[in-house]
Amino acid sequence: MADPLVGLVLLPLGWATLAFVLGPGRGAWAALAGIAAQAWLAWLLAAQVGAGGTARHAVGGWGAPLGIDLAADGLSAALLLLTQWLALGVALYARSYFAAGDPARRYFWPLAGFLLAGLNALFVANDLFNLYVTLELVGLAAVGLVAAAGGERQIAAALRYLFAALAGSGLYLFGVALVYGVYGTVSIATLAPLITPEAPRLVWIAGGLMALGLVVKSALFPFHFWLPPAHGGAPAPVSALLSALVVKASFYLLLRLWLGPFAPLAPAAAWLPALLGAAAIFWGSWRAIRAERLKPLIAWSTVAQLGYLFLIFPLLAVPAAFGAGVMQVFAHALAKAALFAAAGVFIQATGQDTVAGLAGAAARLPVTLFAIGLAGMTLAGLPPSAGFLAKWQLIEAALALGHWPIAVVALAGGLMAAVYVFRVLRQAFCLAPAGAPVAAVPRALEWTAFALAAASVLLGFFGVDLMTLIEVRA
Amino acid sequence: MSMHAWLPLAVLASSLVPGLVIFALPESWIGLRTALNLLGALVKLVLVGLLLAGVAAGEQYGFRHAVLPGLELAFKADALGLLFISLSAVLWLFTTLYAIGYLEGAPHRSRFFGFFSLCVTATMGIAMAGNLFTFFVFYELLTLATFPLVVHRGTPAAMHGGTVYLAYTLAGGAVLLAGIVWLHHLVGHTEFAHGGIAAALGPQYAGQLRIVFLLLIAGVGVKAALVPLHGWLPRAMVAPAPVSALLHAVAVVKAGAFGIVRIVYEVYGVEFAQSLGLLFPLAVAAAVTIVWGSLRALFQDDLKKRLAFSTVSQVAYIALGVALFGPIGTIGGLVHLVHQGIMKITLFFCAGNYAETLGLHKVSELSGVGRRMPATTLAFSIAALGMMGAPLTAGAVSKAWLIEGARAAEMEWVIGVLWTSSLLNAAYFLPILWRAWFRPPPAAWPDEHIPARGRRETAWLLLVPPLVTAAAVVVAGVFAAADWSPLAWAKLIAAREYVTPQ
Amino acid sequence: MTSGLLFALVGVALFALGLAGLVLIGDVLRRILAFNLMGSGAFLVLVGLAQRNGVPDAVPQAMVLTGIVVAVAATALALALARRLDAQREGALPEDEDG
Amino acid sequence: MKRLAVFCLACAFVVLTGGALIELGPAAIDLRGQVAAQLAASGVSHPVTAVLLNFRGYDTLLEVAVLLIALLAILAVTDKPPAAPVPAHPLLQAVARGATPAMILVAVYLLWAGAHRPGGAFQAGAVLAAAAVLLHLVGLLPGWGAPGLRLRLGLTAGFALFLALAAALLSQGALLQYPPAAAGTLILVIEAGLTVSLGLILAGLFLFLSRDEGGET
Fold first, then answer.
1. What's the CA gap between A108 and A103, in Å, rounded?
2. Number of folded domains in chain A?
3. Which of A437, B310, B329, D146 is the most exposed, having the fewest neighbouring CB atoms within 10 Å of its CB?
4. Could you tell me if A285 and A246 lie in one domain?
5. What is the predicted ipTM?
């Protein structure tokens, strides 16, 4: 595959199709081989972008605005890297996770493949309408993966998720329609110089609608209602993919548009997402602290952690804020995938997922427990994790602009995260009820969870590399 | 990488690597685990010895790694850091020996020793931190590594103590972080440097710098157990005795006190701190802590709780020494960092011996224990006398320098505080000694695990560590004037690093 | 006013109607219809606004074709989920053929 | 209360957006000229088809993937065997039988017409699917169970062909960069493949769903 940019989209489309043709439940090897190749391509692309600046590809050779351009700057390359490597971990996990007769396994591989294709296509897209198609690709695949578990709870959650996703993409599409009407193009690169603070009122409306749609898809408070049942109810590998990557995709797009073509309009609304983000941190953390079952706890934690991403919007005048956002995306993605993977281990071992029920199993699954501990460090923003670097940059940016309430929110949110994380961890030290049955769990499950969690902490030592990469801007 | 870079890293690795390996070991591999523990402790001692020799000769050791643009993990082994490192490395060895004996046959020992090693690693990181950022990283790691040790027993009381511990330390960490980022924002970096870094800012920043100082001291004050931030320390007493030793002498409260030293001397600079009027409030806080801790200790019947409140009081001596403007007070505070460590660890070892051997937990149960366990009680007595500041002990040396320092700084009221504290110390220690030596023993001990065999009053691994540290209390007191004494090293630090010729 | 602009205005109204329906209505089938109304509104705006000067523009027309297919896919999935949910909720009860 | 609020918001939105629409000036960029200019090089003479399969063919590729995802998701949530067909009135069956060849013919015409007038693969596929649905409704075509290998191949063939060609065209320098001379043929090949697969997929969206009907009771 000559051009990694294109390869990252075509490969998952290819192996997803192959996995479907091979038949229900088959195709794990095709998927693993494909994702491994994608991981390599993402690495190549990151190196290429780091050395030579933004990578571009004009599909069909036409070039924007007639054709569709693909482009990957540092941010895209970083997220592609994260997506492929995280997917590799989750795929290894999933291969061992699903039992032979599990209905959720039948179409897991093709759906996961299309999901990855959608994510990759989204990260390289540079065209508002093409982005709409990729949003739908991601959204429908995610809904399919949730629904595939097949229980009544999951189907209901999937339906709720679907409506939220459709409302979100509908709002986005309407905004795109208005933008095309005003400017006659949907190419981001072409639009960027055209949109000015004096833009017609319609452009403001369009920007607002698109932002609203993306916010709904990112589950920002108060649009988070769909997330906990969907992420908390899906099988563990699916929850991991959704919480780690899917919600980040719409955030990425929002950030890209905010910093890109809509930058001249953006400052007007910068405090709104931040306020909602703060509310998300408090409400999500509170619900996580109160949750009785493990997976809903983790899902509510996602609601809270997404809040941090939106705190950066009033601070984007300082480079550290952009860095904080990207670092938080990485930290949360890795940590959350690890947590859902670890939760899956406990569910398989004990057949239930109450927090209190961990007491018996935790001492017998030390690797998984460590995974939760390390991932928890990241979520609570404790050093030396990547989550800590994100928090550091966020607070620094807040102080640099004198917006200290944001710093207070970040610190308080970290403490609340520590409360729900240690609520889980302390179970491991409680005296175990004698003779609670603990089923054997494939070691691959435990170790992939651990590897993801360890990555979320170790990334804290490589912040410079990530920051250097994302400095490459279009 | 030159030796000057890898030596600090090797000091970290000498406990980190054994710790990580120990986690992976099956519970039953006692031999290998013990060997790893001791090997790590001994290697660390050798490495620390190399560092000591090098630093005494004026060598510079350091290592830096950027984690974000403009933000570096920085390690340096300077004289001040080495004071703390040496204390921790030596006491780690004895605590490990003691813990091996103490936990014989107990469950979850791999987990225990794994976190134990991580805890020491974090302490080494705190001691060698070259800037506040690095200090904070290891300060929080220390919290995380000690939590599993505090709740090790898994009883509801242990869980409660651990939860309170976490609540205090994590909240303190958040406050500390706020202060550090603020400082980083103002100054652009957080390096520890002779004479401080904050003085470079103009006078218009004085107000902000005062708030930052408050945040920083409140943050480290939680671990240093400054009143009113001390609430976790007595509750953490539910932990096993080696952990208490670690909390009180080797790592946690010391980390807090050490943080105060670094912040006052190397972040603000003592002269600048004085000019901002920050030292007097610190001295008051320390004085209040000293008196309050001693008063509370008087009324505790639980032996470990009494010792815990004693720690609250004694660690504040270090902060007090720092707050006394002038080299003599500095020396008194710094040397107490070491002296308090060896005295308090002895006391906790002995308290653990009483509990493990005879099931004695309360002061009121100790009648006649001196006859059943004379060696342990002797060690306890020496350390207790040291705490009171009795002549020929380490405690006397610290107190003498602190009193001199107060006089030099013209803060006579501090002398009153110190004398009050000594009297209170006597009031809560002497009854214990009297009871142990002169009251008749009960007909049967509450819960005798380890029967006396000949002259061996308890297991060897429990007995040797307190005897050695008790001996050290005397040696440090008698030979305070020697070249190799903690006092000499404290003078070296004061002479080399802080005090501008006056 | 050109017909294109009229289309766009109607599209705005349809979109608002659909969105309000999606927010307010609880019944699944009607929500699916509301979503389709929203989509139709967006398509009308896309095509209508682009040809407000009276000359048709092929690019938005092609986009709308793509959008319609996506909407078909989403609608089918929503219907499938709704049916499945109904079947599960009603358990053994026989289902009305007309759904 | 909520109803009133939403109603007011919706009205305000319509007024605001409508007002902004009316006062809008001409667009900054007009792609009509570019489309017309490049039409000759696109391989087809109908501008919509040129946009759909050439200029913005990448969108179309992804859009077929969206359809496949919906199909996969439907397959993943339905696990009952297909319901037995319920035969309709013989007259209806006869009409449906008669209509089917005509519909296939219409589909082929639409496919061919797409190159120069309204039509194309999607329209053709939709007609094919309609024929299948019609046959199913009159009881001549049973609902589909879990798809066998042949059906799976049929469902994906069009997409796979499109994907393979898109990738192969990378040799021309870019994804989906048709050599102008062969563009017309290649587009027709892609559209033919898509017609079959889209017909099957769209029919599948209906026929796989039919499994959930309460027919077996």
1. 9
2. 2
3. A437
4. no
5. 0.93
